[in-house]
Amino acid sequence: MPQRRRLTQRSMAFVLAGGRGSRLRELTDRRVKPAVYFGGKARIVDFALSNAMNSGIRKIAVATQYKSHSLIRHLQRGWNFFRAERNEFLDILPASQRMDEESWYRGTADAVTQNIDIVDSYDVDFIIILAGDHIYKMDYEVMLREHVESGADVTIGCLTVPRQEATAFGVMAVDASNKITSFLEKPKDPPATPEDPNLALASMGIYVFSWPFLKEWLLKDAQDPNSSHDFGNDLIPALVARGAARAHRFDDSCVRDPGAPAYWKDVGTVDAYWQANIDLTNFIPDLNLWDQDWPIWTYSEMTPPAKFIHDEEGRRGSAVSSMVSGGCIISGTEVRNSLLFTQVHTNSFAVLDHAVVLPYVTVNRHARLHRVVIDKGVVIPEGLVVGEDPAEDAKWFRVTDSGITLITKEMLDRRDASR
After folding, report:
1. 241-283 residue pLDDT tens
2. Residue 413: partners with Cβ closer than 8 Å, 6 or more residues away
């Protein structure tokens, strides 16, 4: 008898990667949120794509829309190893007014609707809809198997979160069998889980459907003039009302070390982005990027190893409790609790403390930078001090309510022009 194929081999992943990500402020002025750098060398979108790849899915589509050039270039460079002769695909699907001359992607569901013919060409039984802007590790085969065994119309990935934190999410009320009985968008009083009155189930924006079923519903939704053509606003509430929607617990499919918590982050604000990157410098971080069994695939530049030079009092190239990527040169700089991306060059007598420094940044002499995010390609001028006087920092840079300072080239240009 022929060997039974894993469900991921009969499935495709459709990654929604077109959102503006405006809460990341100037970090998304030139790039969409899924293209923002994360973890030293990856981009945010790499986590959803790597989960699909590691789960065994070899048919992937990425829908792009706003400020997509950086994302498309990254996908072309870092995800070009799929081979059509092996029945593998990664298709980039920019919003291209395929339906008419006025409509871009009108919502998350419409992004799939406008590409029905392309999904049809993949010849798959199941489709998993993924958000391209979250940090997590998950085996989608587990969720697909649960979907098939339950016979649900849709299976929705859900986080278990404290009830008081669930007001920012779409929340599922479920029965003891994880059948969804209601779906509430950002409720003031979130429904609790059956097993714990202090916990709630929040939607991860991950949905599994059989493709024929979803196609039928997408075509019906496209004809509804009152629809916003969005999964969370329109399709999911309608399917929950039919009584055949099921919640999948992220705890059951999260890929993690033994004893580690289920890790999922929406790094949608500057504060959350800074914190998630800095957390990676912890002695044992909750997110394991060193796991060879579930690697995070990405575009990797050919760079030399990091180099640390000078060993004098006050001028020692050193990094403590930090991550330093390839191509970095730490020249007489003290680096503490910081994450440095590729090709960061620092100079003598500078100090970086709790800094997230994106690629190709130069830090000149005597700069002192504390609790900062520095955008790609920025040249920090000699003697710049940030993180010691919030009022002064706020004159030139973006300072968050919790005191994280975002520095971009444009901000420094305005500062220089005013002097």
Report:
1. 999 999 999 999 999 999 999 999 999 999 999 999 999 999 9
2. none
Please give the domain boundaries of the chain with CATH numbers for all domains. 7-281 (3.90.550.10), 307-417 (2.160.10.10)
How many Å apart are CA 77 and CA 82, to the nearest integer? Answer: 12
Position 173, amino acid:
A
Cα torsion for 320, 326, 330, 331, to the nearest 10°?
Answer: 150
Residue 415: in which H helix or E strand, if any?
Answer: helix 409-417
Residues marked as binding for alpha-D-glucose 1-phosphate? 105, 170, 185-186, 203
Residue 229 has pLDDT above 60, yes or no: yes
Q: Which residues are within 8 A (CB) of 43 and not within 5 positions of it... i.e. 6 or more apart? A: 34, 35, 36, 37, 71, 74, 298
CA distance 322 to 103: 46
Rounded Cα gap, residues 141 and 264, in angstroms? 18
pLDDT tens for each residue of 150-165: 999 999 999 999 999 9
Helix 45-55 to helix 69-78 angle (10° resolution) is 30
Q: How confident is the model at residue 1 (pLDDT cuts 50, 70, 90)?
A: very low
Q: Which residues are annotated as a binding site?
A: 105, 170, 185-186, 203
